[in-house]
């Protein structure tokens, strides 16, 4: 879908994903004879919706501002700080209990893996000056990726906290608004928009499955599942995502890169043992 441009393509995916999800919920309520348009709770809508949209927009703007394919992968890895941040935020927002030493070790492992990826991918020497210089080549994308990760962590916790105020239209609405913003952003870029049949089919598939369905299921899981187990399982996403990203972008990565990814995964094992979900 690269021929239509990042913001055009992603914006269209989120718009269509949100529209399909809204339509599905509407038809489901119609068949079940439930209220077709239940009232949105202002607190949940503003807080969770704002965090959801902030995450989506910041992440894809960071990707769009990346100067090369390796920076795209670095942004993706920094974004995967969100599982650690989710567990840390749950201690304050949800008042979960934790074993401090184990959680600290898990957090350090995850952060160490993320920063190791940045160092390895740029062949940087292990000194503060070289690492700082790399970040200063494009500091905005790294900052946005980190804030995006924090936004998703906060969203996941507040979605759990305000679960009783949620309704099936919430996530589809957040998706739709995110799509509107991203698609509008394409008007301020010089990206090309060459729509083809293949691009259209990719748009439909991505909107229906990875986007609409995935976000909806995550929202349901955050409201009623074991949050700690779900978040810890998500630690394995960086390894899987890195494999597909490297293949899709055609980036050759070193074996040490995968070791750094495993550092992030290793944090899952300690985090699972460290945090107890009081609401599970």
Number of domains: 1
User: What is the makeup of the main sheet?
Assistant: 2 strands, antiparallel
**What is the strand content?**
under 5%
Structural class: mainly alpha
Task: Record the SSE blueprint.
Layout: H1 6-31, H2 42-65, H3 69-79, H4 82-93, E1 97-98, H5 100-121, H6 128-136, H7 139-161, H8 170-185, H9 197-224, H10 227-233, H11 237-249, H12 255-274, E2 275-276
Antiparallel strand pairs: 1-2
Helix pairs in contact: 1-8, 1-9, 2-3, 2-7, 2-8, 3-5, 3-7, 3-11, 4-7, 5-12, 7-9, 10-12, 11-12
Description of the structure:
The chain has 280 residues and is mostly helical. It has one domain. Helix content is 75%, strand content 1%. The protein has 12 helices and 2 strands. It has a two-stranded antiparallel ribbon. The longest helix has 28 residues, at 197-224. It starts with 5 loop residues before the first helix and ends with a strand.
């Amino acid at each position: 879908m690269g021929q239509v441009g990042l913001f055009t393509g992603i914006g269209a995916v989120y718009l269509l994903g949100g529209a399909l999800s809204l339509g599905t919920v509407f038809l489901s309520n119609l068949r079940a004879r439930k209220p077709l348009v239940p009232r949105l709770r202002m607190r949940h809508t503003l807080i969770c919706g704002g965090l959801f949209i902030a995450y989506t927009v910041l992440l894809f703007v960071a990707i769009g501002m990346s100067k090369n394919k390796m920076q795209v992968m670095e942004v993706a890895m920094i974004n995967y700080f969100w599982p650690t941040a989710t567990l840390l935020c749950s201690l304050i927002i949800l008042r979960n209990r934790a074993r401090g030493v184990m959680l600290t070790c898990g957090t350090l492992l995850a952060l160490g893996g993320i920063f190791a990826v940045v160092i390895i991918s740029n062949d940087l020497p292990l000194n503060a000056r070289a690492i700082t210089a790399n970040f200063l080549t494009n500091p905005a994308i790294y900052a946005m990726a980190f804030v995006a990760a924090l936004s998703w962590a906060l969203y996941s916790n507040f979605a759990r906290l305000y679960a009783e105020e949620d309704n099936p239209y919430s996530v589809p609405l957040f998706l739709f608004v995110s799509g509107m913003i991203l698609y509008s952003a394409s008007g301020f870029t010089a990206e090309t928009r060459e729509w083809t049949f293949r691009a259209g089919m990719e748009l439909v598939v991505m909107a229906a499955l990875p986007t609409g369905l995935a976000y909806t299921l995550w929202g349901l899981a955050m409201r009623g599942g074991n949050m700690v187990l779900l978040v810890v399982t998500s630690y394995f996403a960086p390894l899987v995502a890195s494999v597909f990203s490297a293949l899709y972008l055609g980036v050759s990565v070193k074996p040490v890169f995968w070791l750094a990814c495993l550092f992030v995964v290793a944090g899952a094992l300690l985090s699972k043992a460290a945090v107890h979900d009081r609401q599970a």
